[in-house]
């Protein structure tokens, strides 16, 4: 018998299930809080529930969505990448990135409040699909191809895995980015279902503004997302300022041209009054010149936006190389001179192939 994954259940669904089991309705809230507030990972931990109910949970519900196939820690100790194997054999990855450890900054306070703060962030990079259908040539996941969508519970389970791990170290998750394997807007309903579960005020209670969805630019879904009025951050993987150049590295540009993506972003900003982040993988000799930066600045002029640029994470299936530090600095300076804010992000976990899809590709 295939057990239902407990993380796939919304609170109303859980209430209905307990009703079928002839259990009091209030038990659903107790299970919900145990799962997402206390981070219980097995029925035995729900000691506030009667033994008979715990037995029903054991017989009918799965508390694990996957098994850990392997994990790698970066040499600096800041990044852990975990490769999960799903019951059907598909592989997905999730990454924990630590920023600003107390050991690096003795002046930093160690309260729970500050552990959630920017100075001591624990950021999770979560997958929404096994593989990806978008086919971006520089992306290891795109090179794998599309396998299947993850359920909302399989998405949530990645967060719970790391949340439980961090709790043992007296730490908490501070940020979650849906930038792992897959295109979140290609699995829209399940991704939003996972976000709703994580954001639930009676459950994990994770603030929407500490969540970020990254998309290659599926324009209709960007507009749908805007209409729903969520406070979740939006990031667009752009990587080129010219349609022909973008099409060469991102096949999605055949369907949604840059103008379509920018128009959808304008709509999003008008509806939500929130800033859009444009992600930019700096590829040496491809999209890292001052001339490209000027083109990009022209495209983004007047938008409430920010550019996050990061030197390319190398992959076996793509010959491009990362921009050097000097060219990255020139790119940033050119954008900022044109009035477009830009940050050059640190590359994390290069020594453990932390770019999404790299570990799954090596193990498939």
Q: What is the fold's blueprint, element by element?
A:
Elements: E1 4-5, H1 11-20, H2 26-36, H3 51-60, E2 61-62, E3 67-73, E4 79-85, E5 91-98, H4 112-115, E6 122-125, E7 129-131, H5 140-144, E8 146-149, H6 152-168, E9 175-178, H7 188-199, E10 211-215, H8 219-227, E11 233-237, H9 243-249, H10 258-272, E12 276-282, H11 290-300, E13 305-311, H12 325-337, E14 342-344, H13 358-363
Parallel strand pairs: 1-2, 6-9, 9-10, 10-11, 11-12, 12-13, 13-14
Antiparallel strand pairs: 3-4, 4-5, 5-6, 7-8
**Share of helix, binned:** 25-40%
Shape: elongated
User: What's the CATH topology label of the largest domain?
Assistant: TIM Barrel
Largest sheet: 10 strands, mixed
Give the ordered list of helices and strands.
EHHHEEEEHEEHEHEHEHEHHEHEHEH
**Total tally of structural domains:** 2
* CA-CA gap between termini: 27 Å
- How much is the average pLDDT? 90
CATH architecture of the largest domain: Alpha-Beta Barrel
What is the highest CATH level, the class of the largest domain? Alpha Beta
The CATH homologous superfamily of the largest domain: Aldolase class I
What does this structure look like?
The structure is a single chain. The protein is an alpha/beta fold and 364 residues long. The protein has 2 domains: 4-62, DNA polymerase, domain 1, CATH 1.10.150.530; 67-363, Aldolase class I (TIM Barrel), CATH 3.20.20.70. 36% of the residues lie in helices and 19% in strands. It is elongated and about 70 Å long. It starts with a strand and ends with a helix.
């Amino acid at each position: 018998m295939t057990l239902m994954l407990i993380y796939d259940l919304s609170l109303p669904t859980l209430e209905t299930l307990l009703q079928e089991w002839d259990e009091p309705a209030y038990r659903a809230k107790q299970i919900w809080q145990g799962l997402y507030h206390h981070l219980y990972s097995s029925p035995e931990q729900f000691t506030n529930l009667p033994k008979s109910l715990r037995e029903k949970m054991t017989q009918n519900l799965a508390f694990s969505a996957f098994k850990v196939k392997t994990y790698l820690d970066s040499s600096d100790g800041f990044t852990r990448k975990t490769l999960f194997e799903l019951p059907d054999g598909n592989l997905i990855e999730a990454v924990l990135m630590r920023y600003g450890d107390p050991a690096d900054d003795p002046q930093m306070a160690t309260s729970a409040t500050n552990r959630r703060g920017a100075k001591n962030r624990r950021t999770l990079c979560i997958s929404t699909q096994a593989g990806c259908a978008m086919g971006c040539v520089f992306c290891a996941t795109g090179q794998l191809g599309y396998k299947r969508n993850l359920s909302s519970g399989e998405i949530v389970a990645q967060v719970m895995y790391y949340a439980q791990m961090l709790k043992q170290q007296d730490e908490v998750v501070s940020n979650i980015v849906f930038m792992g394997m897959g295109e979140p807007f290609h699995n829209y309903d399940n991704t939003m279902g996972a976000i709703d579960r994580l954001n639930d005020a009676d459950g994990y209670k994770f603030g929407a503004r500490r969540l970020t969805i990254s998309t290659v630019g599926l324009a209709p879904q960007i507009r749908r997302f805007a209409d729903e009025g969520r406070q979740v951050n939006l990031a667009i993987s752009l990587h080129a300022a010219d349609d022909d150049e973008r099409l060469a590295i991102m096949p999605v540009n055949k369907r949604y041209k840059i103008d379509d993506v920018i128009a959808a972003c304008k709509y999003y900003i008008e509806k939500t009054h929130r800033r859009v982040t444009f992600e930019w993988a700096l590829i040496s000799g491809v999209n890292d010149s001052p001339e490209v930066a000027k083109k990009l600045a022209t495209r983004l002029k007047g938008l409430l936006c920010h550019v996050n640029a990061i030197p390319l994470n190398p992959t076996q299936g793509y010959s491009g190389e990362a921009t050097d530090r000097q060219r990255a600095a020139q790119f940033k300076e050119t954008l900022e001179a044109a009035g477009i804010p830009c940050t050059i992000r640190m590359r994390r976990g290069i020594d453990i192939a932390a770019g999404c899809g790299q570990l799954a590709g090596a193990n498939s």
